[in-house]
Amino acid sequence: MGAGHDHGASAIRAGERHRGRLWAAVWVLAAFMVVEAVAAWVTGSLALLSDAGHMFTDVLGIAMALAAITAARRAGRDPQRTFGLYRLEVLAALANAVLLSGVAVYVLVEAVSRFGHPPQVLAGPMLAVAVGGLLANVVAFALLRPGAQESINVRGAYLEVLGDLLGSAGVIVAALVIATTGWWYADPIVAVVVGVLILPRTWRLARAAVRILVQAAPEHLEVPAVRARLAALPGVCDVHDLHVWTLTSGMEVASAHLTIEPTAELTAVLTAARHALHDEFAIEHATLQVEPATASGACGPENW
């Protein structure tokens, strides 16, 4: 006998709640991305180009988040997809991390090549556009922040905007240095700093996505503690075949076999197990298989 605890997809619901904010952030960043790209070409600034490239990945990342939310919601109505397409969110986050890493590597390689022959940069236009880019990122940052704690994909876009915000600040510093001192090396140096700032955050995002895809237990959750808690329930003799994983951000899943005493009440054991998993470990979806104890009815240490 078994029991499952059904629930809505919290990660998808989170995306739905913040859909308007995501769209607003897309339009703000897309508009200014074009401005920065044109300005980078006109001024010859690699730092501004790196910021425009980073902003492009921001736009693409948020667009993928919106696409994943829409696809998962529609797939949830397909009876053949019993878990919907929740993993699309995780795949989008992983693709986002890979793309952003590629942009960072390109900027670093191009910056190194410029140290030998740093080109002249038009500091005035560069400064004006960088200030505008900073303001655009502040707006997008504020729009995405509420959903960053609820969805791994929104968090990916949020982290990109945060990095881009820091990058825009760096471009402003480079423009001021060039305008006041004429030291052209400030441009490739800031480009390197932007690239270095990008990589650690993207690696953390990629690591979180890969953990979900390989169905590893959530980092914040100790599987032995879950096993011990279930084994301590009244009427439970043994816990085996315990599996805990993350389906998508905000959706922890567990399955387990519980061996119970012959005198134990099935409904009471299942109810207690579901409450323990939900209240103490935030596991909302649990599938529990209940099995009788050995023929002798023993429920001693040999069954643990």
TrEMBL record:
GO terms for molecular function: zinc ion transmembrane transporter activity. Keywords: Ion transport, Membrane, Transmembrane, Transmembrane helix, Transport. It is found in: Membrane. Gene3D superfamilies: Cation efflux protein transmembrane domain (1.20.1510.10). One of its GO terms (cellular component) is plasma membrane. It comes from the Bacteria. Residues 22-214 form the Cation efflux protein transmembrane domain. Residues 218-292 form the Cation efflux protein cytoplasmic domain. The chain crosses the membrane at residues 22-42, 54-72, 84-109, 121-144, 156-178, 184-203. InterPro entries: Cation_efflux (IPR002524), Cation_efflux_CTD (IPR027470), Cation_efflux_CTD_sf (IPR036837), Cation_efflux_TM (IPR058533), Cation_efflux_TMD_sf (IPR027469), CDF/SLC30A (IPR050681). It holds the Pfam family ZT_dimer. It is a multi-pass membrane protein. PANTHER family: CATION EFFLUX PROTEIN/ ZINC TRANSPORTER, RE54080P-RELATED. NCBIfam families: CDF. Belongs to the cation diffusion facilitator (CDF) transporter (TC 2.A.4) family. SLC30A subfamily. This is Cobalt-zinc-cadmium efflux system protein.
